[in-house]
Amino acid sequence: MGAGIESLRHSTQVGRHSIVTAVLITFAVVVAVVTLMVLTAIGRVADYSNKLDDERSWETTVGALKTFQGQLEATLHDHSARNDAARSVYGRDDRGWVAGNYGDISSNGALFDTAVIVDDNNKPIVAYHDGEPMTENVEDVLGTAVWALVDQARTTRITGVPEASGYIMTSKGIAAVGAATIRERSGRIPVPEGQRRYLILVRYLDAERIKVLSNIYVISGLKLVPPETVARYAVSIVDPLGKSLGRLVWNSREPGDLSYQQVRPLVLGALGLVGLFFVVLLILGSLAGRRLRAEEVQARQGSLRDRLSGLLNREGLRLDVDRLVERARGDGSNVLLLYLDLDGFKEINDAYGHGTGDQLIRAVAAGLSVLVSPQASLARLGGDEFAIVFPTKELNDAPALRLAEQVLDFLSEPLEIGRRVVVVGASIGIASSPEGRIDREELVRRADLAMYKAKEAGRARMTCYETAMDAHREERNALELDLRRAIEMEELVVVYQPLVDASSCEMTGVEALVRWNRPGHGPISPETFIPVAETSGLIEALGLFVLRKACEAARQWPDLRVAVNVSPGQFRNPAFADYVRNVLNSTEIEAGRVTLEITEGYIIQNPERTRQSIERLKALGVKVALDDFGSGFSSIGYLRQFGFDRIKIDRSLTMNVLEDGRAREMLRATVALARSLDIPVTAEGIEIEEQGRALQNFGCDELQGYFYGKPMPEAEISKRLAVQNAAALDEERGAAA
């Protein structure tokens, strides 16, 4: 029996050993297989990492070349678009000024190495290299490709900047070259074609500067090689004529291979840990814990970042502003905060879609990141709003003003988004916290208030916070509240200005205009409360109120047309046509008697949306007129493209018709253009009889102005119409007798 127990015990031990062995062997096999899979995966990751690093180096090299060229472009613009340069070159021919401003600057090579001024025949006027007059022939040094850049600058149209740049091959090697027409800072060229001068700046891309680029952009072994050199990754340099001048190559760092060599022994060593099952679990648990902690840190950092732009978000900005204000209280420094709101972003977003809008946000974020200093924090607050905060030892707003000017200059340039080129501006508000005396909440409020003040003043502006802005904001808020109540309670009054036939001077229509007698303040000008309505979102309710009142009044004047102004805010609403239909149905007025007037400015910003809105309105039967024609954006293309039923000539063209011969010629041409397109013309702003007679002779069929009647209440229009009808009846009776 003891032998049986011993045999059973032995067999049990063997069974347990086999199970343990089987488990260990199985675990070892699993570990080996997993190790092999890990090694394979790491190898693939290493290859992909190498590829990504080389592609990143390629992109960085391309960016370095563009920056090198861009620096020369900025220098070229500063030295060519100068009032002093235009006076010295075209006026008194001040060679001393030219030598001091072009020749001496070329001596240190910081901005450029060579400066040449040529005439319209490409004949050099002056030339400097390294601070000394050039003795060599310019074409022998720079080659013929430079004339392509000069020709490009020469042939640039009025709407463009007469500048061009690129890389060319010179006798001293590859160089970035820029050519620009010498002009005043405003862009005006004070001499006619044939007498113009062109500034050529040259900056050589030599080995020393390539080494600087290599250090700045962390590109190992960056060097210039001949264009025929074969390399896995290289960036070609091409001249304006399309000829390859050379290639920039670099030493691949192969970070993936280095990482693989470091990881591979560790993975192989893991095979020896098969027997230490619990140790492996502890190690894996530790690694998992570390990974979780790292993810938590990453998640916390990610919560402070804007996903679209990669910049700080509002919470991240809050923390940074608090940190800088606290530091300023200790060291007596100043904290400057800039609030930016992009001008025209909504129109671009609406016209081209959210995808283009997102790309624009990323492009602006990238540009701002280049402009701000390392000590600054850059944030996107949402939508099209950005913020920049940075410390400075200067206890004034000067550093912020300098940065704001750089931002405005950057945003004034066209941005290429995909295959589209868009232009945006920015309204910038600036606030400061000297010695940390202003806390974060108040600092943000002040910057935001200054930004809206800049936006009210017009696009592309910067405004520093002033205490008077608080009173202005309170006054504007009160005005908005009173206006909202006035619209809801229908306390606004609609008046009507007569439109008369140019031949008979009989009233043929009226234009509806809104007036507001604000309780406790008296009459408020439409120029004051209309912009408030537009920015506060009240313009749609206000516009529909005026349209409804005008249509109700027009029912008692069956022989008159009624014209109503439409704001851009109303036109942007896709449901506007439906609102108009409801008003026409409720007032039971013929759609053909209603004319909606839109200004040229909105057409310029939103041509496609304008076309769609006009088509929907004309489908209802209403007329659409182009208001303020000739006020600055007039285009024959708009008249043909949108099919307006009438144009109204702006008062700026009619007011000087009797004194200004040029104004008369412009009016005559404008009316002739409209008549050739079968579009009737209304001239507004007529204040004396002679103006009306002149405009009638030019061909205007309808006139409007104080001479024919000021804006008047509905009852006055009815009286005037009754007198007009009675006179017409008497005339008919007299003719019959």
UniProtKB/TrEMBL annotation:
CDD domains linked: EAL, GGDEF
Alphabetical UniProt keywords: Coiled coil, Membrane, Transmembrane, Transmembrane helix
SMART domains the record matches: EAL, GGDEF
Domain of life: Bacteria
Domain EAL stretches: 476-725
InterPro entries per UniProt: Biofilm_reg_signaling, CHASE4, EAL_dom, EAL_sf, GGDEF_dom, Nucleotide_cyclase, Rev_trsase/Diguanyl_cyclase
Transmembrane segments: 19-42, 266-288
Domain GGDEF: 333-467
SUPFAM superfamilies, alphabetized: EAL domain-like, Nucleotide cyclase
Annotated coiled-coil segments of the chain: 462-489
PANTHER family with a match to the protein in the record: BIOFILM ARCHITECTURE MAINTENANCE PROTEIN MBAA (PTHR44757:SF2), DIGUANYLATE CYCLASE DGCP (PTHR44757)
The protein's name in its UniProt record: Putative transmembrane sensory box GGDEF/EAL family protein
Organism: Rhizobium freirei PRF 81
Higher taxonomy: Bacteria, Pseudomonadati, Pseudomonadota, Alphaproteobacteria, Hyphomicrobiales
